[in-house]
Structure formats: C-alpha cells, structure tokens
Amino acid sequence: MASPMLHQIAFFSKRRFLGGLKCMIVLSLAAADGRTVGCDLNVCVRARHLLGFVDAKQNATGTLTVQNGKLQFSPNGKAAVSVPVDSIRDIFAGTQSRQIGGLPMTLGKAAVPYGGGRAISLFSKKQYDTLTLSYVDPDGGVHEAIFQLNKGQAENLRRQLVASGAHVSHDTIVDWQPGTIGDEEWTTVYQPAG
Amino acid sequence: MDNGIPTRRLIIGLIALIVAANLLNAVAQPSSGRVDSSAPRWSVQVAQIDPASVNIDPSFLAAIYESSLAEIGKTNQFNHLFRDGDRTARNVPNLLVLKTTVEKFVPGSETQRAVTTVSGATKLTVRIQLCTRKGQVVLERTVTGNVRFMGSNLKATHNLARNVAKTIKNSSLPTPASPQAQGGQL
User: Fold this and answer.
1) B156 with B122: CB under 8 angstroms?
2) Which residue from B minimizes the CA distance to A173?
3) d(CA A18, CA A16)
4) What's the pTM?
C-alpha cells in the first residue's frame, strides 16, 4: 500500500537532489570564473578589498564594477562605494601568491606531526592578481587602493578602466623584475596604456 | 548552600577592584600621555612613497602610504593629517611633510616561510624625513618593517608603518611657532 507513496517521495527527493546539484555546479562555475551571476555590465569581477578604497572595510569581498563612469565596489551585504573613473591617476596590475586557508589552516598545518604541515604548505598556495589604483579626492588628496582578484582578471579590468577614461602615467614606473626568491610569486606586469 | 554568599562577595569584590584600577588608570593617563591642548601642534602631510632606485612592486608603495596615514592618525600627535596633494593643506600653519624613501626591499615568499620557517622573510627599509615648508629637515630616521613567520608579504608594510608612527611619536619634534609669531612663515 505504502510503496507507491514511498516511491513518489524518493522520486521527488531525487529530483530535488539533482536540482540542488545543478544549482551548485552552476554557482561554482560562476564563482570559479570570478563573475557574478546575472551581471550584465561590461566588467564585473569578484574582488577582495585589501586596503584604501573609500570607506570599504579591509579584506571585504564583493564585486568590482565599471559603470556610468564610476568604479564601484559592492561588498557582500553592505552599501556600495565608488569613485569616478576620471579621478584615477594610475593603475598597476600585478600577480602574487599566498597561502590559502588563513589562520585555521596555519594552525592545522602546525598540528600535523613529523613536519607534515610544511609539505602541505608547498601545495596549499594560490596565485592571484592585484590591482593597485591611485586616485584623487575632490580636494586633490591622493588615495591608493589595492584589490585582490582571481588570476588573469586584473589586466582586463585595467584595460577597461583605461578605456573608460582612467589616467595611467607609466613614466613613473620602475621596471619591476621578479624577485630573487620565488620568481613565480613575484611577477608584476606593466604594459603600455590601452 | 552556604558557599554561595562568600563566592558572590568575592566576585563583587574582584569586579570592584577591576573598576577601581581602571578608574585610577584613566585618572593617571591625562597627566602622562596627553599634550596640552592650548599649545600649538604640528600638522603633517604624508607624501607619496619614493621608490628611488629600488625595484619594488607598486602595491607595496601603495600599502606603505595608506598604512602610514592610518598609523600616524592613530597616534593623535598631530593637529591635522593631510594626504599628498591635498589643497586644503596649503594654508595650514605649522605643516610638516613626511617624505618616505625606500632604501632596501627584500621580496620574501609566504610559501618559503611556511615551509622552512627560517627563510623567506619580506624585509623593507625606508628613510623617513619630516620637513618644514621651507625644506628644513626636523627629523630623519631609518625605519624597517619585516614579516618573518606568519602572514602575507604585504604585512611587512603594515609593520613598517607602525614602526614609522612609533618612531615619530618617540622623537622630540621642535615646538612649532605660535600662530601670532609665525604669521604663516613656516
């Protein structure tokens, strides 16, 4: 008697499970791509604010968009902050790498016996792009901001900002070469504007 | 059952002791820490970081500049704190300009630090100068900032900025001229 009902429940659970799985795959692909779902603007990337951008909190994650002549950072669940693109005086795109997992991971690695945590450290690193902006406020005061982006996105965003009217003065740039330690971690690429 | 009252008394006594200690500390603070508000104070304008001939990632220069502003602001030592290029600083009396020049930069590696513990430190050495508008140097120091064990490479800039603020705070700056005496001369 109860078996068709159970079968129906199992069928619906399976459908829900598959639906959920599809959602997760779509969301994870969108996150891996670094783009916000449903974002129809020219440039819209996931970013972590490291320091200096208007009143945004340090280490806040959110989306960085270029629209209506403004560079806007929208932290998750907080009000968006923006600066006019034409107030940007310089943009640098670079690449660095860091250990993933933060403090919990560091403590976890320290707890691994026989120095196993050190071996984990060799593989628990991730490369990311940094976007350094220099912009001026209405009084002429210089502000500097740093964003951390997924690898390969900083240069695109820099190009988009330059196309939208941001200034770039590469005359002042030191031709920075990879450091003596860990070359792969310290490459900063400078390309001519445009 | 009877133990409840003495324990409660002990807790109340402890709380009273902590509150009293905090009050005493708060009363003692103004005489030692704060500066006389009527005395003229310097204002400071933080100039952008000069990389000189050192090969350094621009994100480090940006981080030093912003962290210096934040850390100097925390000391409450100066009347006003201005950014580089701020037009409102033009008419401010008793203005000092903080110039920072990078002298040495060793790019470390967070992975190397995590694997070896003893190597891979990120080291920064800068020369700071506090100058008046006329170009007279009132303070010149060499300051370092490192990250040796835990933390990202940019943490070195935060440590450096903290050391810069501490160095300025611990240095004895000349007394600025009073507004009547100087008439916008400095």
Assistant:
1) yes
2) B58
3) 5
4) 0.73
